[in-house]
Amino acid sequence: MRNRGIGTSCVQGGYTPGNGEPRQIPIVQSTTFKYDTSEDMGKLFDLEASGYFYTRLQNPTNDYVAAKICELEGGTAAMLTSSGQAANFFAVFNIASSGDHVVSASTIYGGTFNLFSVTMAKMGIEFTFVSPDCTDEELEAAFRPNTKAVFGETIANPALTVLDIGQFARAAHAHGVPLIIDNTFATPVNCRPFEWGADIVTHSTTKYMDGHGVGVGGAIVDGGRFDWMAHADKYPGLCTPDESYHGITYAEKFGMGGAFITKCTAQLMRDFGSIQSPQNAFYLNLGLESLHVRMKRHCENGQAVAEYLHGHEKVSAVSYCGLPDSPYHARAQKYLPNGSCGVVSFELKGGREAASRFMKALKLCAIETHVADARSCCLNPASSTHRQMTDEQLKAAGVPAGLIRVSCGLEDAADLIADIAQALEQA
Ligand SMILES: *Cc1c(COP(=O)(O)O)cnc(C)c1O
Q1: Chain segment 107-148, per-residue pLDDT in tens
Q2: What is the dihedral of CA 72, 63, 227, 188, to 10 degrees?
C-alpha cells in the first residue's frame, strides 16, 4: 500500500511545490476566492469542477495537511476539522441519523463517550457499548438491523486498552457496516488501521500529531474500501440523490474512494462549519514533519517510566501495553510492533491522599488535562476531571482514586524517572 517510508511521508507528504513556489506550505489566510465569471464559480458549487470558493468548505492549506494525513494512513481522501470531537461527530453522523444505531467499544475518550451517549442520543442515534475484550458472540449480540457503524480507539484514552481491530472489522463487515477507528494515541506511525480492516480513521490532531500543545484540531480519513452501493439500503445519504446538493448521488459520482469525505465536506462542514483555521493547519503540519521522530522518543520514555513504576513498592498497578505482563501485550505486539504511545497510567497504594501528595511534589511533570505533548504532564482524575465522584464510584468507573496518568514527553527518561521517584517518596 505504501510506496515510501512513513518518515518521508511525514516530512514531504501532501505538498510538492512547483518551480519557484514556496518550500514550506503557504498559509492561505483568505475566507474566499475570486473568479472571472459566475459560470466558473457555478461549476464549483455543482461539484463539477474542483477548486476553492469559501474556506468553510475547503482551503488549500488545510488540503495540503489533510493530504499528508491521508498519505500517512494509506487512505483515499481526508479532511481536517476544528477538533477531534468534531471529527468523531462528523464521521458517525455522516452515515447514521435519527433512528439508527451504532456499536462502540466502551473504553473510549470521555468526550466521545459523552458525545455518543448523551448528545447524539438526543439526536435519536442509539449506541450499544461493548468491552474491547468482548468475545465474538458478545460483539455479535450488540448488532441490530438498524446498526450503521462500529466505533473504537486503537489505544483507548485514558484506559490504554488495545483494540483487536481485526475482530471488530470482521464483525462490522459481516453486518455490512464500516468500522471507524479513532487512531489518535497510536498515530499512523505506530498503527495504520486500514491495514487491519478499518474503513474510516479519525484523529484528534491536538495530541501527538500537533505534539507541542499548540492547536486543537481533528482529521477524518477514508480508506476507500467500503462499498456503500453494495449496502445502498443502509446508506441512503450516500447512495440516493442529495436534494440539498443539486441532486448528486455521492457514491455514484465520487466512488468508494471519495464519496464519504465529499459528502462530509459538502453537507456537514457546510452546515456545521467546524473548520480548522489555515493557521492551525500550518502549525499541525510542523508537528507532522517530526511525528515519526517524536513518536519513537515518546514510546521509549513511556517504556522506561512504565518499567520503573512496575514493581515499585508504592505502586499497586501499572497500565502500559509495552510491559510483558500487560493483558494487552500480545495484541500490542500484533497491532503496535514499533511501540504504542507515551501515556502510562498507574495506581498508588495510598489512594486519594497519596495521589494528592504525589502530584504536589512533581517538579518536571506539569499538572494538565492534556496528553501527548512534548512536555511531560500528569493527571489524577479523582482530584480533577472526575472530582465529583466518590471513591466507590471511581472504582466502578475504572479510575480508582489513586490512579495517575502520566504522559511522557520528549525530555530525558532519566530526568522523568528522577522526578517521579522523588514524588513517590513524598507520596
Ligand atoms: C482528545 C481526544 C479526542 C477529542 O479531541 P479534541 O481535539 O480535544 O476535540 C478524541 N479522541 C481521543 C482518543 C482523544 O484523545
Answers
A1: 999 899 999 999 999 999 999 999 999 999 999 999 999 999
A2: 20
Three-state DSSP at 58 gives coil
Q: Do residues 276 and 311 share a domain?
A: no
Is residue 1 situated within a structural domain?
Answer: no
The residues lining ligand 1, judged by C-beta closer than 6 Å to any ligand atom, are 83-85, 88, 109, 111-112, 153, 157, 182, 184-185, 204, 206-207, 216, 218
Q: Could you tell me the three cell numbers for 68?
A: 499528508
Probe target for ligand 1 pocket from 112, 201, 280, 345, with the most ligand atoms within 8 Å of CB: 112
- The tens digit of pLDDT for each residue in 48-97 reads 888 899 999 999 999 999 999 999 999 999 999 999 999 999 999 999 99
C-alpha 373 to ligand 1 mean position (Å): 13
Q: Hey, how many other C-beta atoms are within 10 angstroms of the C-beta on 111?
A: 14
Strand boundaries in 278-331, DSSP class E: 315-319
Instruction: Find the domain containing 370 and state its range.
Output: 293-426
